[in-house]
Specification:
Elements: H1 3-19, H2 21-41, E1 49-55, H3 60-71, E2 75-77, H4 84-93, E3 98-102, H5 106-112, E4 117-122, H6 126-133, E5 161-166, H7 173-203, H8 206-212, H9 217-246, H10 255-279, H11 283-300, H12 312-318, H13 322-327
Parallel strand pairs: 1-2, 1-3, 4-5
Antiparallel strand pairs: 3-4
């Protein structure tokens, strides 16, 4: 092996990288982006989950209990008062992640050693569910009040806070992951396929030939992306069927709503793919730029890591990503 020839090839490759500004930006940008995302944006220790409180006892002891739960930092209660039915409706709408129900006979239950508080949790996210379960470890205030008898010495209030998990009571990770895979697969494949397809036509010189035909530009672009829209809907159907058959993931609600959301995500991803194709000069660059978009989408959308645990500026950035809204 001749070291001079080897050195010449290395210099040639470095000069090509220096001229390729997009690749050069990826070399620096991807490590920096991953460092910022994993070090700053991602937080598995959830804090300040939106919570609603239905305090039917409305006593000093019940207010102390709620204050103790808030002091854990896990929840941030909303200012409005809820009834138990309103808590359930708010959970279904996704307005809150945790609901706390304090019954009217809270103090009697507390000193009788019965279940005194119920915590309702949106179990569709297992990380949120695990964080909310910490509330069951909050000790109830055992000091006697004027209208209750004192506890015997050494007694504790363990087991008096029950946790009820909705939508995923068995805490199966497949129930959380499989539906989200629809959005992840559509984002990963459609953006890349669309971007690469357009750039490939340009590299082969076919784009000029297509433009020279009687086809308008809008017809050309729509005709290029519509097959991938059909592929996206086929992928959606495939994930739904396999998720139900292999992983026993139940489908609740309207299939029409699922497909309407999938159509919107497909259109957004096709638009992003076309945008990338206008900037990429080669198929390799198109795949690089797709990866640069895909990493924030999968990390910040709430698929892998809980959205509630991210800093507020990162949440604002995540709101721009189509996948974030599809997963909701």
């Amino acid at each position: 092996m001749n070291l001079r020839r080897l050195w010449a090839i290395m210099l040639k490759e470095l000069r090509q990288l220096r001229r390729d500004r997009i690749t050069l930006a990826m070399i620096v940008g991807i490590p920096v982006m991953q460092l910022l995302l994993f070090g700053y944006a991602i937080n598995l220790n959830l804090r300040h989950l939106d919570a609603g409180v239905a305090d039917q006892a409305n006593s000093a002891a019940s207010r102390v209990l709620v204050q103790d739960m808030v002091a854990t930092g896990v929840i941030t209660p909303r200012s409005e008062a809820y009834s138990p039915d309103q808590l359930m409706q708010a959970l279904r709408r996704g307005e809150i992640s945790v609901g706390i129900v304090v019954p009217a006979d809270f103090e009697r239950r507390r000193f009788d050693g019965r279940e005194a508080v119920q915590v309702l949790v949106d179990g569709s996210d297992t990380v949120v569910q695990s964080a909310a379960i910490q509330l069951a470890q909050v000790p109830l205030d055992t000091r006697p009040t004027s209208n209750t008898r004192p506890l015997r010495e050494g007694s504790i209030a363990s087991g008096q806070v029950s946790v009820t998990s909705f939508y995923n009571p068995q805490r199966r990770s497949a129930v959380n992951i499989v539906p989200g895979l629809i959005g992840v697969i559509l984002t990963m494949t459609l953006v890349m396929f669309t971007a690469v397809a357009v750039v490939r036509e340009r590299e082969r010189g076919n784009m000029e030939l297509l433009i020279a035909t009687p086809v308008s530009r809008s017809e050309l672009m729509v005709g290029k992306v519509l097959p991938y829209a059909a592929i996206g809907l086929l992928q959606t159907t495939l994930v739904l069927v396999l998720g139900t058959w292999l992983f026993q993931v139940p489908i609740r609600g309207s299939l029409l709503d699922i497909y309407l959301a999938a159509v919107l995500l497909v259109l957004a991803n096709l638009a992003l793919g076309l945008l990338i194709s206008t900037r990429a000069r080669s198929q390799f660059q198109a795949m690089q730029m797709t990866l640069f978009l895909f990493l924030p989408s999968i990390l910040l959308s709430g698929f892998m890591f809980p959205f509630a645990g991210m800093p507020r500026p990162v949440q604002w950035l995540a709101e721009v990503l189509p996948l974030t809204h599809f997963l909701r």
